[in-house]
């Protein structure tokens, strides 16, 4: 209407009846003409564009084609090479051909039109619709028709299936099609797997228990899975920070970005259990951001280099506790520099898995310059040998000592070490000490018995020399108060030709040694590991774990690979240890069909077909008071 | 729970004034609330059956209440499905959970 008005104010030419009718019905010949011209122009422009494949910017400039130009811009990069342009034109032609093919096919083309390029939309859809109108009607049941897929002639029934193109299918093709449809439907449905392996893994980690996870645990796991999106933790209590760090590490989410979340200037502890993804610069960040750091704990810090040690010496003036695992790029001299620089302030040093550097000289420097070391842990450091043992013997303040050597150590040196530092020790862990030269004796156990008087934790494992009599001697009339943690795993003779060990004197912890152990420490013992102590008899087990005995604090027991342990022994443990939470019995083939009491986890019973681990279901008669105060059950971690 | 003044439901109040009335048994899953409502503690909370939590806002407290019921519901089952937590709520909820000891 508005288009016509300026033509004349009040001046009108002769009117035909048709013109009046059209005007009354709001139909304008002008509009019809315009829209027709538009369409023609657009079609021409399309053709022109296809032929020349010019740049988009030079496309048709009239307003009606704005949509078209925009669409092209979306589809293609503005700055494209001529090859790409050629490719594009080929593509377009192909599309056009496809479109025509589809139109011919008929019905289905209408559906797929949307996904197709909108380019030739208007004209085509009109065309298509007319085509639709003139299509042959589908044959009715009883008539004959060619199958859409295999072109065979067949009789149409009410059950004939429609093909992908809209036509009908013969019976065999229809069946085939139905089968495919079912398969895709199945694939679409998410397969809910129980993840048995994951569940078992969690159980062995000690992180399963009845009921829901704690809210903290849920939040931390959620945070870890969104680690990339967190900007800042804000004020977090230290234990939660620590837990977060552990879970981030476990999920391998501790990288250069997320790691910075754990650096806050007011912290004095930085503990990264898994630092393998961190780079040299990241480690320097620690000391730049947290200059007041007191405790540093980095595991798998492969990229911790000399320059980091330099920077650490310069910045971290309050550092007292250092734990580094796998820091193999630090040179020997740098270790010595570090000990000189930290000197009397260094309280705790834990180094593991060092094989390139850190030799006896470094240990001697440590002892020389850091006399106040209270806690020392050296495990699997390949370069150190007997001389370092002599050096450690001069550390007078030592209270916690953990050693695992790769090299042969003469027994007298080790015994001498214990004699020198033993009386102050509260933790003593000696793992896997090899000695191929001297004849086996119980000297070490005698030394422990004679000097250690304040031990709380003792680990003496993978030893194939000390005899049962030696262990009896250790735990009899020992002035040391009862221990809370004992690990004597794998103390046995290893000889394939004589699996029972030497007959005249049993090697390793056996019946009388175990009896003496429980007599000495049973009253305070919380953790007991005697796996692979093969010579403890069944009678001894039943005598020790019988209901008349009580071990009030025992929480975790590992009896794996003690072949005589049977259902009776396990039941005895449940009754005589009121606090027990976890019993591990890998390789104990006599353990069958145990009724596991509530809130206790039995792991590793090999005859249990359905689950490696069994959750207690029943309240035992001795658990009456437990039932009354059914509070929350906290899982016990080893 | 034989105390005469103790009711079946208790009220948790957020710092922005939202009140949530939830089962006492569920509320006591949270260690801090349990201690506050312990009849032997002699705290004011025990007589009013009302716990004010000035460090927790309404949105977070609602989620906490949801968790408490979720925990109670699943107390006996194994392999419990994890509760859904919006990521943006996680940090605040974590701090609240630490404070409440759940």
Automatic annotation (TrEMBL), chain A:
SUPFAM superfamilies: RNI-like
InterPro entries (UniProt xref): Leu-rich_rpt_Cys-con_subtyp, LRR_dom_sf, Znf_Tbcl_Rhp7
Regions of compositional bias (Basic residues) in chain numbering: 102-118
Gene Ontology BP annotations: SCF-dependent proteasomal ubiquitin-dependent protein catabolic process
Compositional bias (Low complexity): 38-55
Record's compositionally biased regions (Acidic residues): 67-79
Region of interest (Disordered), ranges: 35-127
Annotated source species: Massarina eburnea CBS 473.64
Protein name: DNA repair protein-like protein Rad7
Every DNA repair protein rhp7 treble clef domain range: 141-179
Entry GO CC: SCF ubiquitin ligase complex
Gene3D superfamilies: Ribonuclease Inhibitor
From TrEMBL, chain B:
Location in the cell: Nucleus
Domain SKP1 component POZ: 9-73
GO biological process, any: ubiquitin-dependent protein catabolic process
Main location: nucleus
Gene Ontology CC terms: nucleus
Keywords of the record: Nucleus
SMART domains xrefs: Skp1
Superkingdom field: Eukaryota
Function in brief: Essential component of the SCF (SKP1-CUL1-F-box protein) E3 ubiquitin ligase complexes, which mediate the ubiquitination and subsequent proteasomal degradation of target proteins. Controls sulfur metabolite repression, probably by mediating the inactivation or degradation of the metR transcription factor.
Annotated family: Belongs to the SKP1 family.
Protein name as catalogued: Elongin-C
Organism field: Massarina eburnea CBS 473.64
């Amino acid at each position: 209407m508005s288009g016509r008005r300026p033509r004349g104010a009040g001046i009108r030419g002769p009117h035909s009846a048709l013109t009046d009718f059209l005007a009354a019905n709001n139909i304008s010949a002008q509009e019809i003409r315009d829209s027709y011209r538009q369409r023609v122009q657009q079609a021409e422009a399309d053709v022109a564009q296809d032929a020349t494949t010019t740049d988009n910017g030079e496309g048709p400039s009239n307003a009606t084609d704005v949509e078209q130009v925009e669409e092209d811009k979306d589809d293609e990069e503005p700055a494209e090479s001529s090859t790409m342009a050629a490719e594009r034109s080929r593509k377009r032609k192909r599309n056009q051909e496809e479109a025509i093919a589809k139109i011919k096919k008929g019905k289905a083309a209408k559906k797929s039109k949307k996904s197709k390029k909108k380019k030739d939309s208007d004209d085509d859809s009109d065309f298509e619709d007319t085509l639709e109108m003139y299509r042959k009607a589908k044959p009715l049941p009883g008539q004959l028709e060619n199958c859409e897929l295999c072109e065979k002639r067949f009789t149409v029934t009410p059950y004939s299936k429609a093909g992908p193109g809209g036509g009908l299918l013969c019976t065999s093709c229809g069946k085939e099609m139905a089968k495919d449809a079912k398969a895709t439907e199945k694939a679409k449905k998410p397969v809910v797997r129980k993840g048995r392996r994951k569940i078992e893994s969690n159980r062995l980690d000690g992180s399963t228990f009845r009921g829901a996870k704690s809210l903290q645990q849920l939040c931390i796991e959620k945070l870890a899975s969104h680690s990339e999106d967190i900007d800042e933790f804000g004020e977090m209590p230290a234990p939660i920070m620590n837990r977060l760090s552990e879970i981030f590490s476990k999920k391998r989410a501790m990288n250069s970005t997320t790691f910075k979340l754990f650096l806050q200037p007011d912290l004095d502890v930085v503990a990264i259990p898994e630092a393998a993804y961190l780079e040299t610069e990241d480690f320097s960040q620690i000391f730049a951001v947290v200059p007041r750091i007191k405790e540093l704990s980095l595991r798998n810090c492969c990229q911790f280099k000399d320059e980091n040690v330099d920077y650490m010496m310069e910045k971290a003036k309050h550092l007292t506790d250092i734990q580094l695992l796998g820091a193999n790029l630090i040179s020997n001299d740098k270790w010595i520099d570090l000990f000189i620089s930290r000197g009397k302030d260094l309280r705790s040093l834990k180094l593991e898995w060092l094989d390139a550097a850190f030799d006896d000289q470094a240990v001697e420097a440590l002892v020389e310059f850091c006399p106040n070391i209270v806690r020392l842990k050296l495990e699997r450091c390949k370069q150190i040998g007997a001389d370092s043992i002599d050096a450690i013997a001069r550390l007078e303040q030592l209270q916690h000592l953990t050693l695992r050597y790769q090299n042969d150590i003469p027994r007298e040196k080790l015994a001498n070490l214990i004699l020198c530092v033993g009386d102050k020790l509260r933790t003593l862990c000696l793992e896997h000490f090899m000695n191929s030269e001297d004849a086996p004796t119980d000297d070490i156990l005698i030394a422990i018995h004679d000097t250690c008087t304040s031990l709380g934790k003792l680990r003496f494992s993978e030893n194939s020399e000390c005899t049962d009599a030696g262990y009896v001697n250790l735990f009899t009339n020992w002035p040391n108060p009862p221990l809370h943690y004992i690990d004597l795993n794998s103390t046995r003779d290893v000889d394939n030709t004589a699996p029972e060990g030497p007959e005249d004197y049993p090697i390793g912890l056996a019946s009388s040694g175990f009896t003496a152990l429980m007599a000495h420490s049973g009253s305070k013992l919380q953790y007991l590991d005697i796996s692979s102590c093969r010579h403890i008899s069944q009678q001894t087990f039943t005598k020790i774990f019988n209901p008349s005995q009580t071990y009030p604090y025992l929480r975790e027991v590992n009896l794996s690979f003690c072949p005589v342990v049977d259902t009776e022994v396990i039941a005895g443990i449940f009754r005589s240890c009121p606090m027990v939470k976890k019993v591990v019995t890998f390789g104990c083939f006599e353990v069958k069909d145990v009724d596991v009491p509530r809130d206790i986890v039995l792991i590793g019973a090999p005859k249990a077909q359905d689950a490696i681990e069994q959750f207690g279901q029943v309240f035992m008669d001795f658990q009456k008071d437990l039932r009354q105060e059914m509070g929350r059950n906290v899982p016990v971690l080893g | 729970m034989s105390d005469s003044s103790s009711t079946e439901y208790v009220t948790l109040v957020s710092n922005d004034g939202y009140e949530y009335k939830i089962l006492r048994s569920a509320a006591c899953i949270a260690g801090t609330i349990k201690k506050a409502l312990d009849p032997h503690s002699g705290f004011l909370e025990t007589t009013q059956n009302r716990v004010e939590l000035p460090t927790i806002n309404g949105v977070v407290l609602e989620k906490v209440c949801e968790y408490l019921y979720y925990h109670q519901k699943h107390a006996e089952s194994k392999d419990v499905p994890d509760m859904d937590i919006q990521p943006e709520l996680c940090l605040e909820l974590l701090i609240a959970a630490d404070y409440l000891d759940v």
